[in-house]
Amino acid sequence: MGNTTFGNHASGGCVSSVTVSSNHASPHVKPSEDPSHAERLSARQIPLRMRKYMDNAALFRCPVCAAASAKAIEEPADGSHDGRDSQGIAEAIERMDLHPRGSALVCEAGHTFDVSHKGYVNFVPAQKPLKGYSKAFFEARREFLSWGYYDHVLQAVSQVVLKAAADARANDRFRVLDAGCAEGYYLRGIRQAIQSTDAKVDKAQANAAQATSGTGPIAPTETLLIGADISKDAVRLAAGGGDPNLWIVDDVANLALADASMDCILNVFTPANYREFRRVLRHGGMLVKVVPGPRHLEQLRRALGDADHDEGDVMRIFQRNCDTTAVIPATRTFDVPPERVPTLIGMTPLAFRLDEAQRRKIMVSRITIDARVLVGVLRPDETPDTIAQPTNQSKVNNR
Predict the structure, then answer these.
(1) Strand 98-101, strand 104-107: pairing
(2) pLDDT at 264
(3) Is the separation of the CB atoms in 16 and 119 below 8 Å?
(4) pLDDT recorded at residue 89
(5) I want to staple 125 with a disulfide (CB 3.0 to 4.6 A). Which of 18, 151, 246, 289 is the partner?
(6) 3-class state of residue 185 by DSSP
(7) Helix (H, G, I), strand (E, B) or coil at 272
């Protein structure tokens, strides 16, 4: 995929409206409504699926002001190559912070990002759809994943995240970003694992505390999960049904997140932007990147006449940017009943080049899901690889 998008599944579009004040107009925005209307909305009037964004507004920054700041740095106002418009940069940075106003997040410059009634925020309103990554694609992914074919990958990722959250200081919120969350399979699975673990911990602590002093349990570490994807269709599916997770339409090249605001970033079967990851991760924060193993979808690739799969370049770039702490294999082979084959084909970019008649001819009876879970800590220094990570993942990755 391009360097400015999340994932091999990226498609664009806009969900919630983005508005700015009239003196900050741009081709994809409209003048802001009278703020007094939004300000009159009390917290009680805002549904929980929207209020969770208001409560966490400090974690976000305005992507419009951030882009303006980046441009000011790259193109100084005086036209010199070694100077910078310091005042303009400082003003842009100061305006980046987002604040709650009614059911929207608003920056000092007036850029307004509505919280959708569906339960997500769109920070990329002008994103255009990319071929193949449609609503039907993500619905097929959700159905195929619900059958358990990727549960072993989810389990490996969940164990890493839960251990990191458990190692965090007591009562300190642990923040996780899933950069390229698609329809939310991994983040929802992690949420379920956390809830299950917390329930067991609460019960054990309650029993122990009651036996010793009669007091209640110690509060477990709170874990905040944020799912981000460039695809509006994907995020809309992820947010459906409501849960404590935050869901945002966002761009990996210009994340709408504050500096050092995350403790952990997940990057599952999708390209990375190490420069942005380094910016939003706190010092010592963890990156969990999942890449396909050499046998990933090998039966389907053979049926399509594709070459063997190699993610060596991706792993080398990860290792140049991170101090690697673990490489966890996650591989299983499954039988695939004939009635499930169309769904498998519908959720893989491998079949994007095929028409409907060609898709119907594909026959596989087994499928191998082969992944490597790379765990590491980003180094503070930047390398040329931190700007972008061009890979062949768009051809092979299927979560």
Answers:
(1) antiparallel
(2) 97
(3) no
(4) 60
(5) 18
(6) helix
(7) coil
Of 38, 96, 87, the residue nearest 65 (C-alpha): 96
Residue 241 burial (10 A CB sphere; 0-12, 13-18, 19+): exposed
Sheet containing strand 223-229, edge to edge, reads 121-122, 246-249, 223-229, 174-179, 262-268, 281-292, 366-378, 322-335
What is the C-alpha separation between 218 and 329, in angstroms, rounded? 35
Q: Hunting for tokens 């309103």 — which residue is that?
A: 125
Two structure tokens written together for 191: 């949420």
What averages of pLDDT result for each successive group of 10 residues across the chain (399 residues)? 42 33 34 46 68 93 88 60 57 79 91 93 86 91 98 98 84 89 97 82 54 45 91 95 93 95 96 96 95 95 83 91 97 97 93 88 95 95 53 39
Torsion sign (Cα): 68, 72, 75, 78: positive
Provide the 3-class DSSP secondary structure of residue 112: strand
d(CA 395, CA 381): 31
Distance between CA atoms of 277 and 255, rounded to whole angstroms? 9
Q: Which residue has the tokens 């307004």?
A: 112
The predicted pLDDT at position 391 comes to 36
| Concatenated DSSP letters of 86-104 | HHHHHHHHHH-BEEEETTE
Structure tokens at 120: 């997500």
Whole-angstrom CA distances from 393 to 9, 270, 291 are 10, 7, 8
* Letter string b/e over residues 348-370, b meaning 16 or more CB atoms within 10 A of that residue's CB: bbbbeeeeeeeeeebebeebbbb
**Cα–Cα distance for residue pair 392/358, rounded to 1 Å:** 23
Any idea which residue has 């842009």 for tokens?
92
DSSP sequence for 46-84: S-HHHHHHHHTGGGBB-HHHHHHHHHHHHS-TT--SS--
Characterize the bridge pairing of strands 174-179 and 262-268. parallel
365, 369, 361: which is closest to 304 by C-alpha?
361
What is the model's pTM? 0.81
The tokens describing 62, both together, are 């305005």
pLDDT of 38: 47
